[in-house]
Amino acid sequence: MSNSISSPCKDYADITEVRATDPSAITRAWQTRTTRPAIRGNGRLMIVAADHPARGALAVGSRPTAMNSRTDLLDRLRTALADPGVDGVLATADILDDLLLLGALEDKVVFSSMNRGGLAGSSFELDDRMTAATAKATAAARMNGGKMLCRIDLADPGTVTTLAACAQAVDELAAHGLIAMLEPFLSRRVEGKVRNDLSPDAVIKSIHISQGLGSTSAYTWMKLPVVPEMDRVMDATTLPTLLLGGDPTDPDEAFASWEKALALPSVRGLIVGRTLLYPADDDVSSAVATAVAMVR
Question: Secondary structure of the chain: what % helix, strand, coil (to 5)?
């Protein structure tokens, strides 16, 4: 194939060829991509998320190696993004660049994933430093914003490094007029493994801590789990909020909980990854269509 990206790559071999022979084509493609504002129409958002692999979190439910294959993940993402009700994607640069070269990001909302240093299962998991996208690179690629995981363990000194890094990123994104999306959890180690406390009061406390990060909240959004008593949880913030899907359990139960929470006033939509990309029956189109119908 030609080294030009005037047309999308036809297959994954084309992507590797471009990366090997003309890597600057990726920068050019970001500059010529058709962008869109995050909010338009009825203001609701349906975003698919795919940033787990960069933390070494490759399991989905009972499948420990579900996300091992990059091409399989890209196939699933392209299926999801082909649904006109899906507004966009959240991912790390490697995945976003692949989707870009495939032409899958035209007229889509794009969020970069910023802190992936807290590798799943590591001794330093809660020291979640910024190892992925920067605010500067996110702005240069004309994306809509950046997302930060903000796990708070009151017994782990690594938490303060994460908090400081997230606060700095909030300011840097705001300086570019970009959304700073915070995904907070109150976390603790149980038998050596990091576990998120999904009780309503724990989620409320994580909201209050994280929404105070940075010197401005003008561009800050929340990415929050769906837990019991969501009306009380959402009363803790006035920030626009997207609901996350978490690790898939019972799909019917998950969809029912999303539908109820989506009716709350500050909830602006869904940002869901594995539940939609790796449903138990592997019917990505159907899972995405169900979620889209709820958001719309």
Answer: 40, 20, 45
Secondary structure of 8-50 as H, E, C letters: CCCCHHHHHHHHHHCCHHHHHHHHHCCCCCCCCCCCCEEEEEE
Cβ contact 49:86 at 8 Å: no
Looking only at the bridges linking them, the beta strands covering 193-197 and 179-190 are antiparallel
* pLDDT for residue 252 is more than 90: no
Q: What is the pLDDT confidence band of residue 157, given thresholds at 50, 70 and 90?
A: confident
Render pLDDT for 253-279 as a digit per residue (tens, 0 to 9): 788 888 889 999 899 999 999 999 999
What CA dihedral angle connects 181, 228, 64 and 53, to 10 degrees? Answer: 0
The alpha carbon of residue 145 and the mean position of all alpha carbons in its chain are separated, in whole angstroms, by 10
Is the pTM higher than 0.90? The answer reads yes
The two beta strands, 145-152 and 241-244, are unpaired
Residue 26 near residue 97 (C-beta atoms within 8 A): yes
Between strands 179-190 and 109-113, the pairing is unpaired
Distance CA 151, CA 189 (A): 12
Q: Are 242 and 221 within 8 A, CB to CB?
A: yes
Contact 240, 266 (CB under 8 A): yes
User: What would the two tokens of residue 193 be?
Assistant: 């493994």
- Say if residues 238 and 212 touch (Cβ distance below 8 Å): no
Residue type, 290: T
Q: Which two tokens stand for residue 223?
A: 């990415």
Structural contact between residues 237 and 220, judged by C-beta atoms closer than 8 angstroms: no
Phi, psi of 245 (to 5 degrees): -95, -30
Strand intervals (E) in the chain: 45-50, 88-91, 109-113, 145-152, 179-190, 193-197, 220-225, 241-244, 267-272
